[in-house]
Amino acid sequence: MIQEFTFSLDATPGYEAQPKRLDFALTQKDFSVYRFLIKVFSGSEEIDYSGASEIELIFVNEDGDGVIGTGRAGSEGIVYDVGSKELQAAGTVEGAIQLSVPSALRLTTQRFAFSVLGDPRRRLEKPDDGCVSGAMDTEGETGEKGEKGDKGDPGPQGEQGPQGEQGPQGETGAQGQRGAPGESGLSPRTI
C-alpha cells in the first residue's frame, strides 16, 4: 500500500526564501509506503525533466542530519519513494530538489517542509510516563516544540569493581647484541 502525496514547487529565480509548508505529516521510521509526486514550475510553465541527468532530493531534519535521495522523471512529474532515513527523527523536515543536466548546469527548487510524527511504538516502550493509554491517539494538530530544559545532576559515582587477574606473561624476546668492551687498565687495589 503506497500513499501518494502530490505537490508543486517553484524554480523561478527569486522564489521565496521561506520553505513551502506542505499540509501532510508522515510517521517516523515508516518506509516504502510514501511516494512524492512533484511538479516543478518556472513561472507558469512546468519544466521539462527529460533532459535531467540526475534528480536529487535533499532532506534535512531538525537535528541537522540529512540524506540525499534520487528521484526519477515520470508522467506525473518527479517521482520519489520516501525511505526510512528521511523520516528518522520526529519534527519538521526541510527538503529541496536539484536537477542536473549533462552540460554541468544545476537547478534548485524552492525548499519545502513537512512534519514527521513520532513513532507510536516509542511511546509504548515507556509505560511509566503515563502515555500508554493514549499512545495510539495521534489525531489533531502538532503543536510547537517546547524549549529544552536544563541538564540534571549526573548522580553519584558508582563503586569500582574488583580488580581482574593478571594476564599471562608474554614471550621472551631475542637476546640483544653484546656491548662494546670497556677501557683496559688496572683496577684499583686496596693495599
Indicate the percent of residues in helices: under 10%
Q: Termini separation (Å)?
A: 109 Å
Number of helices: 1
- Along the chain, the helix and strand elements come as EEEEEEEEEEEH
Query: What is the CATH third-level topology name of the domain at 3-11 and 19-122?
Result: Immunoglobulin-like
CA radius of gyration: 32 Å
What is the CATH C level class of the domain at 3-11 and 19-122, in words? Mainly Beta
SS elements, strand count: 11
- CATH architecture grouping of the domain at 3-11 and 19-122: Sandwich
Could you give a short account of the major beta sheet?
Answer: 6 strands, mixed
Residue fraction in strands = 35-45%
Can I get a quick summary?
By secondary structure, the protein is mostly beta strands.
Identify the notable features of this structure and list them briefly:
191 residues; mainly beta; Immunoglobulin-like; six-stranded mixed sheet; five-stranded mixed sheet; 1 helix; elongated; disordered C terminus
3D structure, described in words:
- The chain has one helix at 120-124, and strands at 3-10, 20-27, 34-42, 45-46, 54-61, 66-70, 72-74, 77-82, 91-101, 105-108, 112-117.
- It is an all-beta fold and 191 residues long.
- It is built from one helix and eleven strands.
- Strands 2, 5, 6, 9, 10 and 11 form a six-stranded mixed beta sheet that branches.
- The protein has a domain at 3-11 and 19-122: Immunoglobulin-like (Sandwich).
- The N and C termini lie far apart (109 Å).
- It is elongated and about 100 Å long.
- Helices cover 3% and strands 37% of the residues.
